Each structure stands twice: as structure tokens, then as C-alpha cells.
Amino acid sequence: MDAITIHQGTTIPLMNNNIDTDQIIPKQFLKNILKIGYGKHLFHDWRYLDDGTPNPDFILNAPERQQATILISGDNFGCGSSREHAAWALKDWGFKIIIAGSYSDIFFMNCTKNGLLPIILPQAARQHLAKLAPDQVITVDLPQQKVSCPDQTYFFKIDATWKNKFIQGIDDIDLTLQHAQEINDFEQNIPTFN
Amino acid sequence: MGKTLFDKLWEKHVISGPAGQPQLIYVDLHLVHEVTSPQAFEGLRINHRQVRRPDKTFATMDHNVPTKDIFNIQDQISRKQIETLQQNCQEFGIRLADMGNADQGIVHVIGPQLGLTQPGQVVVCGDSHTATHGAFGSIAFGIGTSEVEHVLATQTIWQLKPKTMGIHLHGQLQPGVAAKDIIMALIAQNGVDFGTGYAVEFFGDTLQQLSMENRMTICNMAIEGGAKMGMMRPDQITFDYLRGRKYAPQNMAKAIEYWQQFYTDDVSDYDRVIDFDVSQLAPYVSWGTNPAMAVPVTGKLPEITDMNIQRAYNYMDLSPASKATEIPIQWIFIGSCTNGRLADIKEAAKVLKGKKIAPNVTAWIVPGSRAVKNAAEKLGLDKIFKDAGCEWRDPGCSACLAMNPDKVPAGIHCASTTNRNFEGRQGKDARTHLASPAMVAAAAIYGHFIDIRQKEAI
Ligand code: SF4
């Protein structure tokens, strides 16, 4: 997993609430058996017109936004289906950080597995960030837990365990296998009913 | 201070980690399906890892499978995904309910039906509706593909203990009002994220009137209220349901004695409580693009108060002036892990018996599993549906998420017993209206919703 410490990048605002994972990556793209290549289908139904050409009114298609790495959104981002493809698609398109009002629990966990940092900021902060110019770089400092743009700095909270995981980019399974003995012991004590 | 059902289950499963931080939790049952598992198995292969407990893992095919002409998959990518699961199960020694197999079906239908799901367990699956299994008194929740890989390799998962919420259901449901209406009303009244960060337990005297099928419908949709876990205390109804099922414990007496320790000591032990009287509840239907955008069938659609509502009206081509009963229905879908069990199919058949669906309505009945299909046919229900003008199909997720060819056409209003009415969920630009099986069946007859409580009068 890629580590994240201090990240600088430009933004894309998509401010509706309750953006669900069916919108982030529609089901027809879940048939793949790989983890890569989903970026071109990110927000597919909003991003492409019926004839398959890019919808010029959708912000992800704006030429001046193509380098953005930070997505700003509303409340309850990533609700609905548990599909990790949503996190993979956001990552694959180029996003490294999401700033929303809240997240669904499953989507949040999926972010932590993929080096996609989910930050929570209040609405006023997000509305301010959403108004920044397309080329305005902002700084996300994970060790200091702050987001800075030229005229403001916002602090955010994050659980210490997730924070360390992002900073170190640790593989979960390796970490867990250090507990192999405890897992063995646990299994000895599981009740059976035969 | 006492403990909740959830606290007691959690304590029994913590392997490592201090309270207040993510803790390592043991998984008793891992259910696997074709869509969210290929990358997990690939990860195991790359890292030369094995499946730690194939005996606690069970796989089926549901999301992609055809529900007509099942051995003839036209879509090459779907076929590849299905074949990949077959190969992975063989390579890693996992039991698979393959297509055509008597045990195959929607993952959340077959787990309980086979007796794999039991009280006192931690159950996970790469699917958000895993909350369904919580109806048995287990901690059951959906996980992402990285977590699927983690569980395959270690039989454990890291989780931060959520807060607990008790939802007190009391009163007697009126005839015609279903379990589906309880959960739809709760979400309509509390929003799509009221349960985020909580493990929700449903309790109260209403549960005594509900079968395991009904209870599963409620827990299934906990996730639509944001709660990744919904659960209920195991009781006699739970034990009676499990007895004699294929993978149920052989020594039921011993199992029941163990399971009976799992209950909430006192209402004050929850972090939050919601009180809900079901006695005045009317059947609910959704009008918009998330499950909270729903109203009693007796009601009107809401005013436009923000951009989210405006957006939903645009997508659904409806307006605030309409009544819920005026929504034109041209399609119905009965099935899914919410309402695709035998009890649900029976409810729908009761309404459709001796009737014909409206001429402009297309109706698909998709049983939740092969066993449900067989049982329904034994009762002659397939004949009732066919005589009414419905299509009786093979088991799978089908038009619940429209990943296979089963799609609702653009612009069409579909009354559906499923759980999500998101934009495009049942097909691009399809318009989904969630409701109970009886309500959906009645909508097929009339071409619009009716208040099923007054069915005789119409
Ligand atoms: S029936 Fe629908 S909600 Fe249930 S598992 Fe299948 S796709 Fe998901």
C-alpha cells in the first residue's frame, strides 16, 4: 500500500450528499477479476453521455481539473454496496484524498486498505475548499492532521491506528500473522456442538 | 452496568487489541461470491498464502448468474468471473454451491437456509447485505475485497468496536403491513445514515410476531440506514428455524444452551435507543433515489426542500403534487436477499392467486435460491404466477442490481421487493420503487400502488 504523509494537490468538488458506490463505479464494471483499470469508469453514468462521449458539464471531465488528486464531497460518501472497486476506481483515476462530511463504515475501511485517505471536515470548511480555483494547490498534512489552503487551515480527527497505517503503508495480513499464536489459541477454545 | 447482545458477542470474539482501538476479531463463517472475491484469491496466490479455514468458508454464485437458460452465459466477462470462482474454490479447497446445484442461491438466502448461519457467530461476506445474518443473533457485516483476502488468509478481521443502538419495535402490525414496511419506515423517518458507526439491535414484542424470514428482511436493510450490522436476540423462533438444517449443529440442545447467553441485559446498556410503535404503520413505498425517500402509500410525495430532493424528482420524473398511488408502474420485480425467500414468494402468490397482471406490466419473479424455487413449485406457486402473466425464473440476484442481462429498461417505473433504489441500480435510467412483496404483487395487478390493507374494497 502507498504511504501518505504530506500531500499537495488540486481539488474537484462534487458536493451532493449520499454519493453511493453504485454511482462511483456502476455494476457493469465489477465483472473484472483485476484490481486495476477502473479509473476510466469512475462516475460512469454521470461522466459519459448516452452515446459514450464525455459529458462536458460533468466536473471530472473539465480539462483544467485533470490533475486533481483531492475529491471534496458531501455527507455519507460511499454509502451502499461494499464494492472495493469504488476505492480502486477513485485511486486509479488519480485521487489520493477524499474530504467529505462523513463516510459509510464499509467504504471507510476499504479506503484504509488502499492508501486512499478519507478525511472528515465540517460543511463550512468543505464549502470553502469547493470554491477554490481549479489550479489552487492545497496541502494535506497527515502527521499534523491539517488541511491548508492559502487563507485557511483546518484540523481533522483520525483514529491513531488508521493514521499510522496510512503513514507507514503497512500490509494488514503481515501485521495479523504476527498474532498467529493467539489465533491458534483462540481456535482451541471455540465451542463445538457435535 | 450490564451488556448488550452485541457487547457479549464481541467479547467472545476478540483475539487481540485494547478496547478503543481496532481489535482483531475471529470470524466463524465467511461467505464468498463471485464478484468481490477474484482479487482476494489472486492476492493469496501472489503471496503464496493458503486459506486458513476452508471449513469455515462457503462460496456460491449469485450476482452474475443468468436466471434463464443458466448454462448459457452470453457475456464473456461474466463467464470469466464465474469460472474464476470455480477454479479458486477448487484450488483452495472451498465448498461451492455451483450453478445448478441444489444449494445455490443468493448468498444471504443460502447461509441461513443451509444452517450455516447460527447464533453467536461472527459472519462476514464481501457484500453489504451481510447484516441479514444478524437476525440469528450474530455479528454479521459486509467487508471489502482486501478484507476478504485478509479473512481467507487469517480467519480474522480488524475492527473498531462500533457503538450500540437499540431499536424498540412494539405493537401489533395491521394485516397487510409487512416487516419490509417496518424497516422502510424507520429509514424514511431517520435517514440513510442514522446507523452509521452503530451496531443496531432490534428488540421488543413485535419480533414475536415475525418469522425468521421477516426478521431477516429487517436486518438485511439495516445497511440502508447506515448500520453495517443489524441483529436480534436468538430465541425459540430462531432455534426452531435452524433445527434439522444441513449444517445446523447435531447436538442442538448443547448449542441452544450456549446460544441462550446472548441477550441484552437492559435497555439502558445501549448507547442510543429508538422507539418505534408499529401498530399504526401503513405500507411504505419509495419514490426517490435512496431508501429514505419513501412515504406511506396513503401519503403524498414530499415538497422540494433541497437539491438532493430536486435531483431525485428529475431522475424519477415525478413531482411533489402526486400521491404515492399515482406513480405509474410498468414493471415489477419480486426477489433478492431482502424479499426472495419462500415466505415472501408465498405472500406475493396470495395476492396474485386467480388474478391477472395489468396488460402493460412486465413481472419477474426470481426466487432467492434453488431450494426456494423447488419448494415454491412443490406448492404450485409457480403456476399461480404464470397464470397471472408473470415470468418465473431461476435463482440469483437478477434485477436487484442488474449485473446480468436482467435489467429494467430506461424510464420504466419498477415496483421492486429489493433494497436499493439508487440511480441506475436496476438498469440505466430505470426507476425503482421499493415495497413489500404483497404491495409489489398488487401493483402488478393495478398498474399502480394500492393500499394493500384495503385490497378487498378495491
Ligand atoms: S440480492 Fe441484491 S442486495 Fe442482495 S446480494 Fe444480491 S445484489 Fe446484493
Automatic annotation (TrEMBL), chain A:
It catalyses: (2R,3S)-3-isopropylmalate = (2S)-2-isopropylmalate. The keyword Lipid metabolism does not apply. Belongs to the LeuD family. LeuD type 1 subfamily. Pathway: Amino-acid biosynthesis; L-leucine biosynthesis; L-leucine from 3-methyl-2-oxobutanoate: step 2/4. Keywords: Amino-acid biosynthesis, Branched-chain amino acid biosynthesis, Isomerase, Leucine biosynthesis, Lyase. The lineage of its organism: Bacteria, Bacillati, Bacillota, Bacilli, Lactobacillales. The gene is leuD. It is an enzyme of class 4 (lyase). This is 3-isopropylmalate dehydratase small subunit.
From TrEMBL, chain B:
The keyword Disulfide bond does not apply. InterPro entries: 3-IsopropMal_deHydase_lsu, Acnase/IPM_dHydase_lsu_aba_1/3, Acoase/IPM_deHydtase_lsu_aba, Aconitase_4Fe-4S_BS, Aconitase_4Fe-4S_dom, IPM_dehydratase_rel_enz, IPMI_cat. GO terms for molecular function: 3-isopropylmalate dehydratase activity; 4 iron, 4 sulfur cluster binding; aconitate hydratase activity; metal ion binding. [4Fe-4S] cluster binds at C337, C397, C400. Its cofactor is [4Fe-4S] cluster. It catalyses: (2R,3S)-3-isopropylmalate = (2S)-2-isopropylmalate; citrate = D-threo-isocitrate. GO terms for biological process: L-leucine biosynthetic process. Keywords: 4Fe-4S, Amino-acid biosynthesis, Branched-chain amino acid biosynthesis, Iron, Iron-sulfur, Leucine biosynthesis, Lyase, Metal-binding. Residues 7-447 form the Aconitase/3-isopropylmalate dehydratase large subunit alpha/beta/alpha domain. Its EC number is 4.2.1.33. Binds 1 [4Fe-4S] cluster per subunit. It comes from the Bacteria. Pathway: Amino-acid biosynthesis; L-leucine biosynthesis; L-leucine from 3-methyl-2-oxobutanoate: step 2/4. Belongs to the aconitase/IPM isomerase family. LeuC type 1 subfamily. Catalyzes the isomerization between 2-isopropylmalate and 3-isopropylmalate, via the formation of 2-isopropylmaleate. PANTHER family: 3-ISOPROPYLMALATE DEHYDRATASE, HOMOACONITASE, MITOCHONDRIAL-RELATED. Heterodimer of LeuC and LeuD. This is 3-isopropylmalate dehydratase large subunit. It comes from Liquorilactobacillus ghanensis DSM 18630. The gene is leuC.
